[in-house]
Amino acid sequence: MIKEQDIRRQSIKDVGFKMMLAARTAPKAKGIDNLEIVLADEKDILLIAEKMKEIASRPNTSPAFKRDAENILRAEAMVLIGTKIKSIGLAYCGLCGYANCSEKDKYSDHPCTFNTGDLGIAIGSAVSIAMDSRVDNRIMYTVGMAAKELELLGSETKIIFGIPLSCTSKNIFFDRIF
Predict the structure, then answer these.
(1) Is residue 50 part of a domain?
(2) pTM of whole model > 0.90?
């Protein structure tokens, strides 16, 4: 007989791999893919948690960083999904606040609306896989901020979210106290 405890970690990683595929195949504006997607293991999670604790110690920083750092240390894997900030070359759009992509490109740190939209769709696709697999998860911006500072998805990836994964009798990512 194989006990659930003996296959849990690998099963969660397998779900993480499927989440990565779902994020990659999610629809993207004009078919342009600016996403970076990785699966963080225990060593990476520890590094990210330490960076989150450092961020939490800074003045005027949300206490959520410290809370979430402690929380992810109990995760067995974590998917990170981020986007580069690149326009998609539309002549007439203006959703980002500039007249068109050529004008927006003069401000390289200003996100293209489609970058963030594509990121949201990819995250939704990824967490739907976790949900269908009954793996507990939560989308965390705090993880993304730490991953961004560590440049874990490369220096061009400017907006990142983390999705820690767990499978216990109670979802460890909810009922949290600030």
Answers:
(1) yes
(2) yes
Of 73, 110, 105, nearest to 91 (Cα)?
105
Q: State the 10-residue block means of pLDDT for the chain, 178 residues long.
A: 91 98 96 97 96 97 94 96 94 91 91 96 98 96 98 97 94 73
Describe the crossing of helices 64-72 and 141-150 by its angle, rounded to 10 degrees: 80
Say which CATH number the domain at 58 has. 3.40.109.10
Has residue 171 been placed in a domain? no
Number of folded domains that form the chain: 1
Q: Which of 101, 118, 111, 94 is nearest to 37 (CA)?
A: 118
Task: State the Cα–Cα distance between residues 168 and 151, nearest whole angstrom.
Answer: 30
Determine, yes or no, domain membership for 138. yes
